Amino acid sequence: MNLFGMTLGALQEQFAELGQPKFRARQTAEWMYQRGARTFGEMTNLSKELRQKLSAQHEILRPEEQARLDSADGLTTKLLLRFADGTAVETVLMRQPYGNSICISSQAGCNMGCKFCASTLHGMERDLTTGEMFAQALHIQDFLREEGSGVDTVVVMGSGEPLMNYEALLGFLHLMHEPYALGMGYRNFTISTSGIVPGIYRLMEEGIPVNLSISLHAPNDALRSELMPINRKYPLRDVVEAGRAYGERTKRRVTYEYILIDHLNDGEEHARELCSLLSGQLASVNLIPINPVVERNLLRPSPERIRHFETMLQSRHINVTVRREMGTDIDAACGQLRNRHMN
Ligand code: SAH
User: Whose CA is nearest to atom 14 of ligand 1?
Assistant: First the structure.
């Protein structure tokens, strides 16, 4: 049985079956989650007999590093991690001025079908488990620890739709927060969604102050449905209404992601529509110049057009930022590295 990814409660049950006291479960959790132990043999404060017993019946399943790319400036590291069944996912570390931020995948592949996204090209392979999401974070935490630092913020913005893998996502957030694991505050997490409305309300009811990021990308239903098929199920108005409710209840600022695509959604009329859609909401807009999808003729607007769009929002008192790009030299956008390996 694999112990990695279990909560302390689950580990205690396992240890009870072995006739072991509870504190042994905590020691094991700390070895696995805080000290990077990959074998029971390393757990030197457990008796030799217990270590042997554990080794015989249990394992600590961690993914293998299939590929690692470091950007030339040293700020971005992208990993392709492979699980025991051969499924591989991408995880990214961005050394930001405000700390180490990591980007986690929630599914292997994705079936949302967004026209601009590389993660969806091969469809969805499977959901990731709580342990597999946690393993991505711990893989990075382990090597940051050697540099004397650690993970500061987490965005669930890699491949997959986190709110379509809800239970595993919640388990991941809880585990990351637990003191015997990484002990991270919920405010350091951001969940990015393509707008799964029931999932947004469900998350809002959990009472954990995680940040929400909603991928909007278009200011009207016609255009959004064209770019993001999920909009046919959960239309724009409902998505924005859910965002408003989330912000009001959790008191966390909701961010709307808006990819800028040349002459498709970056005109003045789009900026105006976007402003009226969000008016009166405590929200901010993050403009993302698209990572071009040349096959589909989705190209990046000129710097002037990007600047103009940003100014239009600012003049209407919308809090707006333009995403700083990192790691373009290492295929750091979702799905690119994985696709290359699959091909
Ligand atoms: N499914 C979730 C999280 C994964 S996508 C969601 O939709 O939010 C994470 C972010 O990357 C989203 O905002 C997505 O729209 C964006 N993204 C996908 N492809 C992109 C591309 N080619 N250029 C820029 N951003 C992209």
Answer: 215
% of the chain exceeding 70 in pLDDT: 98
Q: Which of the residues are catalytic?
A: 90, 334
CATH tag, 8-57: 1.10.150.530
* Residue percentage of the chain with pLDDT more than 90: 88
Q: Ligand 1 test: best mutation among 192, 196, 234, 287, most atoms within 8 Å of CB?
A: 192
- 258 in ligand 1 pocket by Cβ < 6 Å? no
Per-domain boundaries in the chain: 8-57, 64-342
pLDDT at 277 over 80: yes
Q: How far away, in angstroms, is 229 Cα from ligand 1 center?
A: 14
What is the rounded CA–CA span in Å between residue 97 and residue 46?
Answer: 40
The residue to which tokens 């599914």 are assigned: 107
C-alpha–C-alpha distance, residues 20 and 319, integer Å: 55
Residue 334 CB–ligand 1 contact under 6 Å:
yes
If we measure between CA atoms, which residue out of 244, 246, 235, 144 comes closest to residue 190?
A: 246
CATH of 64-342, one of 3.20.20.70, 3.40.50.720, 3.40.50.620, 3.30.1490.480: 3.20.20.70
Taking only the tens place, the pLDDT of each residue in 69-117 is 999 999 999 999 999 999 999 999 999 999 999 999 999 999 999 999 9
Is ligand 1 within 6 A of the CB of residue 288? yes
Name which residue sits closest to atom 13 of ligand 1, judged by CA: 215
Residue nearest ligand 1's atom 20 by CA: 117
Check pocket membership of 161 for ligand 1, CB cut-off 6 A.
Answer: yes
pLDDT band with cut points at 50, 70 and 90 for residue 340: confident
Please work out whether the CB of residue 333 comes within 6 Å of at least one atom of ligand 1.
yes
Flag whether the pTM goes above 0.90.
Answer: yes
Q: E strands along the chain, which residues?
A: 64-70, 76-82, 88-96, 99-103, 107-109, 124-127, 153-156, 189-193, 211-215, 254-260, 283-289, 319-322
